[in-house]
Amino acid sequence: MISAIRQIEPTWLAPKQVHAFCTTREGGVSKAPFNSLNLGLNAGDDLEDVLQNRRALRSRLPAEPAWLKQIHGATVSTPASRNALVNGPFEADASVSNIPNEVLAILTADCMPVLFASKGADVIGAAHAGWRGLSSGILENTIQEMCHLSPNLQPKDIAVWMGPAIGPTVFEVGEDVLEAFSSHSQDVLSEAFKPIAGSPGKYLANLYLLAQDRLRSIGIEQIDGGDFCTFKDSANFFSYRRDRQTGRFASLIWISDNA
To answer: What residue numbers bound the domain in which 132 lies?
Structure first.
């Protein structure tokens, strides 16, 4: 028997016209190890199972999500770039919109999904922020494209929610990841990268803290979320680091024309 889709709604100061939620792994038809609500087409799951899962998700949304081909980069999909696209999905790691009922979607399984909403409810964004995207400027680029869509928008008027990602007590990284964030202050780096005793050159990294620092450095004041761990919460979330072969869950956001 298929259980109902269970979703997590952000606790943040977004306007009521902005709707958002994150799926869990519960409520789909995929078999182990993708059980059950795998929404990723490229995870190795049965295609028809994934499409059935996506149809179940679509029934909760005002439109088909604007799925991206995520590549751990810093490109942002915009309404104009999507309109110019002949064959989808768009190759990008974030998207923005000022179109009512256009659903933005990010797929993850340890990387951080980050949702954005202007306090005036006229523009939204969604970003796929693993360590590569974070260090490459995916959050800054998303905010920049939001401001292009709403010329009077200031970063301080954007609310941000950091969705489920691998937590700071289990995300082991090497020197290469530390070096990728070398532009951060030493105080932030010492907090965000904790050396692992007995493992020279290995650290436990805090994606949430690194994202907060990036956001605050460009004027974002309202940042919520950051209290999840995909690796530890196997009942709710897929985790690539934990399972290797696994599914993907989605974080979705749209501006409703029926607030």
So the answer is: 7-165+222-255
